[in-house]
Amino acid sequence: MHVLTSTEMKEIDKKTSTDFGITEEVLMEQAAMAIVGEIQKDFNKNSHLLFMVGTGNNGGDALAAARILHNEGYENIEVCIIGDENKGSRLFKKQLNTLKQFGFLDFFEFNVDFKNHVSTADCIIDGLIGIGLNGNTNDLIKGVIDIINTFKRGKVLSVDIPSGINANTGEIMGNAILADKTITFGSVKLGHIFFPGREYSGTIKVAPLSFPKSLFNISHRELVTPEMVKKLLPKRPKFSQKYDYGNVLILAGSSEFPGASILSAIGAQKVGAGLVKLITPTPLSSYVLNHEPGIIYKSLMKDKFSLKDFDLISKELKKASVIVIGPGLGRSDETMQFVRNVVEYSRVPIVVDADALYAVDSLSLRKNIVLTPHVGEMKRIVRTDEINIRQNYEYTEKFAKHKRATIVFKDATTIITNGERTYFNITGNTALAKGGSGDLLTGIIAGLVSQGLDVMEASIVASYLSGRTAEIISDEITEYYATPLDIAKNLYKAISEVLNV
Ligand SMILES: NC(=O)C1=CN([C@@H]2O[C@H](COP(=O)(O)OP(=O)(O)OC[C@H]3O[C@@H](n4cnc5c(N)ncnc54)[C@H](O)[C@@H]3O)[C@@H](O)[C@H]2O)[C@@H](O)CC1
Ligand SMILES: Nc1ncnc2c1ncn2[C@@H]1O[C@H](COP(=O)(O)OP(=O)(O)O)[C@@H](O)[C@H]1O
Ligand SMILES: [K+]
């Protein structure tokens, strides 16, 4: 599914009408039918439905839905229009006239009594502002939203996007409706998938309407879905053996951070790599053997990697089909020199993570190198203090393009981009907000690359699977308790779920 900006959505809307002859009126009627469908699922004909209506097309959608429900025999509908009706959009005015033609009369003014209307409602329908929001909510709308947000009795259903949420970034513009459910049209918008918009949207439903599918290709951004992951998951033909599934070389760890390397190695192995070789400075044999004796393990019997280790491992570099470098390395100058040499010398795909990201400035990157920064690392490598970098996907896209590399910007909404195409992963929860989750992800990416996926494909599948596993096991053992090792051991749950999509 494509993830759209408001400009792209408006473009699609326009072309649907000009190039395909499906008018805005038709689309609005379909949008209204979709809203009605959602309301009918949860509320019966006696339910008190309170429609909060702005004077743009978002309000038009809400008015049309109120009309259809009234016509269907819903008896307890109230409509409150916020703003100057005479200054409303063409379709808003048209919908208002049509509603009146249907004999609907239960309009009420926004005044001191408003709280009384709210207090008895079963459902508030938020059709105040949609993707046409511009700037911060004005005082009138702000006051309305504040009161609606005190509503606890029933449910809030937002039309298209919670009013006050920036459709392009997910930011709260002044204040915003905290919805239980949002029904959006055509495809999701960026504001639905970036926090805080993602949280404010509640459960998101997408009503396709009659937009021609081909028009969505104006967007180069997509949401990672289980169907996409299923298609990408490497095949495992019966007539095959371990060399068909690649050779992962992991260069990670130091006496200071010994555990990271093991998580990366386990990650690679649990998604099906043929051979996983872990070379680490410090002795870890008992840990590795305890957790996964199948991992080929070698310790250099020292504190950290340095340049002179390069000769020792150069034979291994030649055999590898993919390299992981970074987790737990430490950031000393000698280790950074080692990292630079490995990256310069190798031609195979490389996953550059954690401490190795500190050498990025001096690395010449290429398309089959993937960098996997979290928020702090991202800020450092792009040299910015910009607070909104987490929602600023364009920043990450430009950086990937400039560096000619693939970036996995890990966050609660993860951005995966090579500067030309961008994917957003929204699986996962706070079970992953723990040291070691990133090390595991790095290994999973490498394990998938070793089986033939390119770094972008592998990053999509890896982010989805680690996040989805976190969700599945949190239902059983909670987000507090689940650790990166639990995620690693339960990856099969997300894999089999995907295989059965
Ligand atoms: N794009 C599409 O293809 C479709 C759009 N539809 C609806 O149309 C909506 C977009 O309609 P519009 O472009 O008319 O815009 P909206 O109705 O989303 O927003 C414009 C209205 O919000 C008010 N407003 C904007 N910024 C404000 C602020 N900061 N403070 C207070 N008030 C503010 C304006 O005064 C105006 O009344 C979508 O969100 C969706 O609900 C649907 O009819 C289905 C088809
Ligand atoms: N609240 C959250 N929801 C979903 N995913 C999260 C959340 N917090 C962290 N993650 C994911 O967990 C991983 C954390 O990686 P990172 O911070 O590099 O861990 P570490 O370096 O300790 O191994 C990333 O894949 C990130 O996307
Ligand atoms: K809305």
- How many strands, which pairing sense, and closed or not: the largest β-sheet? 10 strands, mixed
**Cα-based radius of gyration, to the nearest Å:** 26 Å
Strand order of the largest sheet: 9-18-17-16-15-14-13-10-11-12
Q: Any idea how many domains?
A: 2
Instruction: Tell me what the CATH architecture of the largest domain is.
Output: 3-Layer(aba) Sandwich
* Separate helix tally: 18
Q: What's the CATH topology name of the largest domain?
A: Rossmann fold
Model regions low in confidence, pLDDT < 50 over at least 5 residues = none
How many strands in all? 18
> What share of the residues lie within helices?
40-55%
Form type: elongated
Derived structural class: alpha/beta
Gap from first CA to last CA: 16 Å
Q: Residue-averaged pLDDT, rounded?
A: 96
**Ligands present:** ligand NAX, adenosine-5'-diphosphate, potassium ion
Q: What would CATH call the homologous superfamily of the largest domain?
A: YjeF N-terminal domain
Classify the beta-strand content into a percent band: 5-15%
CATH class wording of the largest domain: Alpha Beta
Binding site for K(+): 58, 126, 163
Domain YjeF C-terminal: 225-498
Binding site for AMP: 410-414, 438
Organism: Marinitoga piezophila (strain DSM 14283 / JCM 11233 / KA3)
